[in-house]
Amino acid sequence: MPTIVLIHVITAILIAMLTVFGLISTNPSLTTTSKMLDRILYLVLIYSGAVMLLSTFQLSPIWIIIKAALGLAVIALIEIAFAKKQQRQSNILQWLTGIFALTAILGFVISKFFL
Question: 34 vs 47, 72, 88, 109, CA distance in Å?
Fold first, then answer.
């Protein structure tokens, strides 16, 4: 497995763990810390995703565009979930879980067939 793919996968797992921890935490300072760490890790995730996108785009542009859009949707849903938690309306977790799972599955399919 190439190093950039490993960095991307590890970062995505860390973001998932921090997000779950932040969303289920009852301590506001832990939620804020989790949100800030997520935002730092987004930069690593976006960078590694862009590097992989540039190296695989010519192989299957449609799947790569869909994967990139889903990845950005996951980041947006994480931010929405944290905002809803502050407003005490946390029913977006199911959508977030579904989109994250779909993005992860598509990423593994793309890496299996195109990397």
Answer: 20, 19, 17, 29
> CA separation (Å) from 76 to 6, 15, 23, 105?
23, 13, 15, 19
Mean pLDDT confidence for 4-26: 91
Q: What pTM was estimated for this model as a whole?
A: 0.82
| Angle (CA) 25 27 17, round 5° | 30
Sign of CA dihedral 110, 53, 10, 6: positive
Q: How confident is the model at residue 109 (pLDDT cuts 50, 70, 90)?
A: confident
